[in-house]
Design a protein that fits this description.
This protein is an alpha/beta fold and 308 residues long. It has helices at residues 17-29, 49-59, 74-84, 104-112, 130-146, 163-170, 179-185, 209-222, 226-256, 263-296; strands at residues 2-10, 34-42, 63-68, 89-92, 117-123, 155-162, 190-196, 303-306. β2 (34-42), α2 and β3 (63-68) form a beta-alpha-beta unit. This is Glycosyl transferase family 2.
């Protein structure tokens, strides 16, 4: 029998743990010749998530848990589950039930057809705001434009990876890991399955604007140095603009025998170019910060306890 590992990061998901475990069991009750394990990764939860996981692990043999020493973030938590998964294929998904467990059947079917990576493409239900849909679409378009890999619009961390692919991920030691980009960068034989995101079963999402912005910058800087080239291009562009503008100013002064005065225009020009310089320095600083974090070679996560 082939074994499927389900990796589920959980941060303050005490109300969803039992629900998703029950639905996964129902899915595999209809699948013959497959056994499974569910690896919950407690990513520094402050509620009773760990207590719920220990209770489930005592009741069901397939339930495993990894408790991290603090909140390391979604991507390191997924990486922790992948590192300890033992299945012939590994499926990663969220604990809030927005990733429907019933789609596991389709993921496995595509894997059996010979695909090494089966990713999912998310579409939003009608009740999701127009702003959320547009901002998400613009983010993926911008990310694909500015990075060296193509990121599928509507991509998520709900995917299946063959054990050979998981072995490659285990051997990667990136300080800021970005699994959505890595799955595209690695290659292999891939296919996608569309799905409509469900509603969160219980609780509130901890994925706030700050974390979304950090995730966006991680995705942009993890796979490309194009922002550095853009900074250089901006420098050349504004230098040329300054030379041309100064030339026009000199010609105007000679022809009209006047001069353009006013401290407001001067101050605005200084502020504008000062802002451009800060943006460029910020881009360089982000890359230097990533190098700083990488050379220290600290682990992506620290395990406090586990039941296997």
């Amino acid at each position: 029998m082939k074994k499927i590992s389900i990796v589920i990061p959980a941060h303050n998901e005490e109300g969803n743990i039992s629900l998703i475990q029950q639905r996964i069991r129902e899915v595999f009750s209809t699948l013959e010749n497959y056994r499974f394990e569910i690896i919950f990764v407690n990513d520094g939860s402050r509620d009773n998530t760990q207590q719920k996981l220990e209770e489930l692990a005592n009741q069901f043999e397939e339930v495993k848990f990894i408790e991290l020493s603090r909140n390391f973030g979604h991507q390191p938590a997924v990486k922790a589950g992948l590192d300890y998964a033992t299945g012939n294929a590994v499926i990663s998904m969220d604990a809030d039930l927005q990733h429907p467990p019933e789609l596991i059947r389709d993921l496995i079917r595509k894997w059996e057809e010979g695909f090494d990576i089966v990713f999912t493409v998310r579409t939003y239900p009608k009740q999701i705001s127009r702003f959320k849909r547009k901002s998400s679409a613009l983010y993926y378009k911008f990310l694909s434009l500015i990075s060296d890999v193509n990121i599928n619009e509507g991509g998520s961390d709900f995917r299946l990876m063959d054990s050979s692919v998981v072995d490659v991920v285990r051997n990667m030691n990136e300080a800021d890991i970005f699994l959505r980009g890595l799955s595209n960068w690695m290659g292999f034989k891939q296919t996608g399955i569309p799905f409509t995101a469900g509603e969160r079963a219980t609780g509130q999402s901890s994925y706030n604007l700050k974390k979304m912005m950090k995730f966006a910058f991680t995705g942009i800087t993890a796979f490309s140095v194009k922002p550095l080239y853009m900074a250089a291009y901006l420098g050349f562009l504004f230098s040329a603009f300054a030379v041309v503008g100064y030339g026009i100013y000199v010609i105007h002064s000679f022809v009209a025998k006047t001069e353009i005065s006013g401290w407001a225009s001067l101050i605005m020009t200084v502020v504008f170019f000062g802002g451009i310089q800060l943006i460029i320095l910020g881009i360089i600083g982000i890359y230097l910060g990533k190098i700083f974090k990488q050379v220290k070679e600290r682990p992506n996560y620290i395990i406090r306890s586990k039941n296997f």
